[in-house]
């Protein structure tokens, strides 16, 4: 900055700027004008001859031309999105809206045009400290415009120096306020649900500060375009987010299990109940059937007890004997009796260990062997010899 | 000498005099009028102004709000941690004659140096009384108030109005940042573990509840089923009892036969029989009498 330079006692801080130049254009022009006027005065008052009259006529014509041109140079236009500030000798006079205007020409009045409708923007991206002393990386973008062109032009040096954003007041304020608001909040809030809230806090506070400066600027929007954990810890943050998903997954898996197990249990319960109902019906019906059968038999039995008893007995024994291998021993005989029990047992255990077919084969085998044994009392009874009685004895079948 | 020339010279001199007796002050400037280096007017309106040529001189100073942006500075906080702080100061010349007198003839760098020193001392003092957290959060406003109120007095002597003091950045130095990152990392690990454990906890709860519910359903069903079966059994027993009471002795005979039939004579059972048994009564007779 010019006034920061050493030895700038009398140095004009505005010398770098075209508009406010103290010793430059206007005064010089006035001086020139004065000189011209002086010459004109002297010229017209001096010579009385024709040639000088002619030349003075020409000079007057030129002068009129000059004055008209000078007056015409006072016209200027203001675009629809702009406003003009009229300054008379550097002092603010008026603000003009869009259209064609006239001002007093150059050295007297000047016009500064300010874009008021144009949206301007500024952004800042950096790491910032949060309230809980964590570091977040945040990008803030602000859209703003000039609300009051007089304030904008006259009150602050570099309200929003657009060529170099960081030199502008708006950027400085945004930077400070963003860090202040971030510093008031916890990291989790900033990264998750708080983004909109933080953006609007920043906006409000920026506006407050800019109003305090009478900057003439109006903030339109502030956005938090980026808010993440810094790259140094990004991985850990991603891991935590993954863990959150895992937690949901665990719950979903458990819920899936529950959704499988409970209906299954209900199904089993329903089956159990149905089975028991069936059992009850069956048991009762069987009992009724059995009872009825027995009652009818009893009626007949009472008519001829002895015969019926005998018949039932023999028929039962017949069935029983038919399905068995039989060894008949006369207890009166003194002969030693040899029973190949182990063989018989082996036969049954083999039968148990094999399929039904193998068992049948083994049985046949065993029978053949037993035929070969010299046991005289061995009765060669096989299943094939048994003829089952066609009529079942009046005995209740097992269920 | 020609009279015309004399007139011209006089007119020229007058014009020069007129020119040197006017000056303009911009809307953005403040000016001081000196008479032989003595301040005669420090309250000059913007626009065209007049002065006495050769006797008075004019100096101009900016009237707009100026910015003093500090270089990053380290401050020690209440808990003896260093923080790097940027701040900026918005100021403007309020009393231009005081400003001129106290800053070596209105040198702006002079003024800024003094203001910066003032701010740094103030901020150092304020930071040393606060923890980082206080400095970071709600305390920013009061830090600045503390700095401002003290420095305003000094600024006033300089003819300066402090418009605003604002901390734009509070950061940890790099070495501290690393340990902050480590803490953040371990903190996230804790959070991750917490999430997973809670998820597993919830999952286990849901599973256990499902198991409980299904067990209860099954048990209730068993209870119900056994009750129904019992009803069936009871009813059957009643029916049987009523029927078999008709002839208990015959029933026992009849039932025994049924039992023999069901238990003997299957799977190739071996029966060892005496020919004297009831069943063989005729079998034997025949054998004796061919």
Automatic annotation (TrEMBL), chain A:
Where along the sequence do coiled-coil regions lie? 233-260
Pfam families under this entry?
Band_7 (PF01145), HflK_N (PF12221)
Stretches the record annotates as Disordered: 1-28, 362-399
According to its UniProt entry, one GO biological process term is: proteolysis
GO cellular component terms attached to this protein's record: membrane
Could you cite one Gene Ontology molecular function of this protein? peptidase activity
Transmembrane segments in this chain: where?
A: 59-78
Which residues lie in Basic and acidic residues bias regions? 388-399
Which Gene3D superfamilies does the entry mention? Answer: Band 7 domain (3.30.479.30)
Identify the SMART domains for this entry.
Answer: PHB (SM00244)
Sorted alphabetically, the keyword list is: Coiled coil, Hydrolase, Membrane, Protease, Transmembrane, Transmembrane helix
The membrane topology noted for this protein in its Swiss-Prot or TrEMBL record is: Single-pass membrane protein
* Compartment annotation: Membrane
Query: Where in the numbering of this chain does the Band domain appear?
Result: 73-241
Q: Which domain of life is it from?
A: Bacteria
What is known about what this protein does?
A: HflC and HflK could encode or regulate a protease.
**Hey, which family's this protein in?**
Belongs to the band 7/mec-2 family. HflK subfamily.
Its assembly, as annotated, is: HflC and HflK may interact to form a multimeric complex.
For this entry, the protein name equals Protein HflK
Q: Point out the gene that encodes the protein.
A: hflK
TrEMBL record, chain B:
Task: Please name the CDD domains in this protein's record.
Answer: SPFH_HflC
GO biological process terms on file: proteolysis
Please name the Pfam families in this protein's record. Answer: Band_7 (PF01145)
Q: Which GO terms describe its cellular component?
A: membrane
Tell me how this protein sits in the membrane: Single-pass membrane protein
- Kindly give the SUPFAM superfamilies that the UniProt entry links to this protein: Band 7/SPFH domain
Instruction: Give the Band domain ranges.
Output: 20-184
Annotated localization: Membrane
Q: Name one GO molecular function term.
A: peptidase activity
Q: What does this protein do?
A: HflC and HflK could regulate a protease.
Q: Per its record, how is this protein called by name? A: Protein HflC
What organism is the protein native to?
A: Thiothrix subterranea
């Amino acid at each position: 900055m010019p006034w920061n330079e050493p030895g700038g006692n009398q140095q004009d801080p505005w010398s770098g700027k075209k508009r406010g130049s103290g010793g430059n254009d206007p005064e010089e022009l006035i001086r020139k004008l004065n000189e011209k006027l002086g010459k004109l005065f002297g010229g017209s008052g001096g010579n009385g001859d024709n040639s000088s009259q002619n030349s003075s006529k020409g000079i007057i014509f030129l002068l009129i031309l000059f004055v008209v041109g000078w007056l015409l140079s006072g016209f200027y236009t203001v675009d629809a999105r702009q406003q003009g500030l009229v300054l008379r000798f550097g002092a603010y006079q008026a603000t003009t809206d869009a259209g064609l205007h006239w001002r007093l020409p150059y050295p007297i009045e000047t016009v500064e045009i300010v874009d008021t409708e144009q949206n301007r923007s500024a952004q800042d991206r950096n790491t910032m400290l949060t309230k809980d002393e964590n570091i977040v990386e945040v990008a803030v973008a602000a859209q703003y415009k000039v609300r009051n062109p007089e304030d904008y032009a006259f009150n602050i040096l570099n309200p929003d120096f657009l060529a170099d954003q960081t030199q502008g007041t708006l950027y400085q304020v945004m930077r400070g306020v963003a860090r202040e608001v971030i510093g008031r909040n916890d990291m989790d809030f900033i990264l998750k649900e708080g983004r909109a809230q933080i953006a609007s806090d920043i906006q409000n506070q920026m506006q407050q500060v800019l109003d305090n400066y009478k900057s003439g600027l109006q903030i339109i929007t502030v956005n938090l375009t980026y808010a993440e954990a810094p790259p140094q810890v990004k991985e850990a943050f991603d891991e935590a987010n993954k863990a959150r998903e895992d937690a949901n997954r665990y719950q979903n898996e458990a819920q899936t299990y529950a959704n499988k197990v409970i209906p299954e249990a209900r199904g089993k319960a329903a089956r159990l109940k149905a089975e028991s109902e069936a059992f009850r019906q069956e048991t009762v019906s069987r009992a009724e059937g059995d009872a009825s059968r027995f009652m009818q038999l009893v009626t007949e039995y009472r008519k001829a007890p002895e015969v019926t008893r005998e018949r039932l007995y023999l028929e039962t024994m017949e069935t029983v004997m038919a399905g068995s291998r039989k060894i008949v021993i006369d207890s009166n005989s003194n002969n030693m009796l040899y029973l190949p029990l182990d063989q018989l047992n082996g036969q049954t255990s083999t039968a148990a260990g094999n399929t039904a077919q193998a068992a049948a084969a083994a049985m046949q085998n065993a029978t053949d062997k037993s035929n070969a044994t010299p046991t005289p009392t061995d009765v060669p009874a096989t299943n094939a010899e048994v003829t089952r009685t066609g009529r079942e004895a009046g005995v209740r079948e097992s269920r | 000498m020609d009279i015309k020339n004399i007139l011209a010279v006089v007119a020229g001199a007058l014009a020069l005099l007129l020119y040197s007796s006017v000056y303009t002050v911009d809307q953005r400037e403040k000016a001081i009028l000196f008479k032989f280096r003595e301040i005669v007017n420090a309250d000059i309106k913007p626009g065209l102004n007049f002065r006495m040529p050769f006797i008075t001189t004019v100096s101009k100073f900016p009237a707009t709000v100026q910015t003093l942006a500090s270089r990053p500075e380290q401050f020690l906080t209440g808990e003896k941690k260093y923080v790097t702080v940027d701040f900026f100061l918005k100021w403007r010349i309020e009393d231009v004659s005081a400003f001129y007198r106290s800053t070596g003839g209105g040198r702006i760098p002079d003024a800024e140096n003094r203001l910066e020193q003032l701010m740094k001392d103030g901020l150092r003092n304020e930071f040393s009384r606060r923890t980082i957290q206080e400095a970071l959060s709600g305390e920013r406003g009061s830090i600045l108030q503390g700095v401002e109120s003290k420095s305003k007095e000094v600024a006033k002597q300089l003819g300066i109005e402090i418009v605003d003091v604002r901390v734009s950045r509070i950061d940890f130095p790099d070495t501290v940042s690393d340990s902050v990152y480590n803490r953040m990392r371990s903190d996230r690990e804790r959070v991750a573990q917490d999430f997973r454990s809670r998820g597993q906890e919830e999952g286990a709860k849901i599973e256990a509840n499902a198991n409980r519910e299904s067990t209860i359903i099954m048990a209730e069903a068993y209870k119900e089923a056994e009750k129904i079966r019992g009803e069936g059994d009871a009813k059957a027993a009643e029916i049987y009892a009523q029927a078999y009471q008709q002839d208990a002795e015959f029933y026992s005979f009849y039932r025994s036969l049924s039992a023999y039939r069901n238990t003997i004579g299957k799977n190739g059972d071996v029966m060892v029989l005496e020919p004297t048994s009831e069943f063989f009564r005729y079998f034997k007779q025949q054998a004796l009498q061919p």
